[in-house]
Write a structure and sequence with these properties.
Blueprint lengths: L2 E2 L8 H13 L12 E6 L5 H12 L3 E6 L7 E2 L12 E2 H9 L4 E5 L7 H5 L2 H10 L3 E3 L7 H14 L6 E6 L9 H12 L3 E5 L8 H4 L3 E2 L3 H5 L4 E5 L23 H4 L6 E3 L12 H4 L6 H22 L1
Parallel strand pairs: 1-7, 2-3, 2-6, 4-5, 6-7, 8-9, 8-11, 9-10, 11-12
Helix pairs in contact: 1-12, 2-12, 3-5, 6-7, 6-12
The structure holds phosphoric acid mono(formamide)ester.
Length: about 325
């Protein structure tokens, strides 16, 4: 395995989940695999879960781990070719990438969508520059369009908690004060489309996601109808994907907040969210604190999804 961006990079998803569950039983079983290998995690954006879980996964595998916060202590990086660098950016990514790569064996990259240029974002320009110029395996730690380590952890969590062979999983948009990327819902849709679940997406009109990720998923604009009989409710905000509103907030309709009343429409569903979450915008205190809330075990599974991916990468070196 040389890269992770889409579910298909993991091959057979069921096998990947089973492998992850085996790793979870003994997360230090592959401690020798990463001996004298170095993992570099490069962050262009903030993180709590990804930062800690990915480093922990690398350490479980016996790796040395390094974190670079590009915006704190490193030179400010230019990312576009052809720019006359007479501003505040001292170094170009095209030199920085091979230099970073010379100190490590595997690279994780966090680089969110910028919402300045949809093509730049959806071509995964930053991640692909790392793939092209590092010569090292590269995995997304949430890049412009996808967050596969999160979606893989979500799928592992669903596998652990499901009470029927093919549960109904509903991903619902919910309000948020800031414009957020589509990476998490994109990847969740990508993974659910490949999983043995009955998958429904619900959002207000105008929030349609990219066809590349939605594929054949059912889209239901009536949230109450979508939630009927759900076994898992996955809440997330995202900004508009479709032109001419790319990256914009179209609604802050609080009737979409996941509340006890909304959860009562479901089949006693589990509540999921990738975190961080804005309480009483996305989800009420009551729901996130209820016994049906999986947000903590879901976050804890980020260690396992990262370990499974990095293990596979190490095996391919
Ligand atoms: N879910 C997630 O990726 O969390 P962080 O942004 O804190 O890493």
């Amino acid at each position: 395995m040389r890269k992770l961006l889409m579910a298909q990079d993991l091959g057979d998803l069921n096998k990947a989940v089973q492998e992850a569950l085996e790793i979870k039983k003994n997360r230090y079983a592959y401690k020798k695999l990463g001996e004298n290998k170095t993992l570099l995690c490069v962050f262009f954006n903030n993180s709590l879960r990804t930062r800690l879980s990915t480093q922990k996964a690398g350490m479980n595998l016996g790796m040395n781990t390094m974190v670079l916060d590009v915006n704190q202590g490193a030179w400010k990086l230019e990312t576009e070719r052809g720019v006359v660098m007479d501003g505040d950016k001292s170094e170009h990514l095209l030199e920085a990438i091979p230099v970073m790569a010379s100190f490590c064996d595997v690279i994780g990259v966090r680089s969110f969508a910028r919402f300045e240029n949809k093509e730049f974002d959806y071509q995964e320009t930053i991640l692909n520059q790392f793939i092209k110029y590092s010569g090292k395996p590269v995995f997304s730690m949430e890049s412009a369009t996808a967050h596969p380590l999160q979606a893989f952890a979500d799928l592992i969590t669903i596998e652990e908690y499901k009470k029927k062979e093919r549960p109904k999983v509903v991903m619902t948009w919910a309000p948020h004060p800031r414009a957020l990327p589509q990476a998490v819902p994109n990847s969740f849709a990508d993974f659910m489309n490949e999983a043995n679940v009955d998958f429904v997406i619900t959002h207000p009109k105008g929030y349609e996601l990219s066809e590349k990720f939605v594929r054949n998923a059912k889209v239901e604009y009536d949230q109450d109808k979508a939630l009927e009989g759900a076994d898992f409710v996955y809440a997330k905000n995202w900004s508009a994907y479709q032109d001419p509103n790319y990256g914009q907030i179209l609604s802050k309709d609080m009737s979409w907040t996941v509340s006890t009343e909304k959860m009562a429409l479901t089949n006693n569903a589990y509540f999921m969210h990738c975190l961080p979450v804005r309480r009483n915008m996305i989800v009420t205190d009551d729901v996130i604190e209820s016994p049906q809330s999986l947000v903590i075990p879901e976050a804890a599974n980020r260690e396992i999804s990262a370990e499974t991916v990095i293990k596979r990468i190490l095996e391919s070196l």
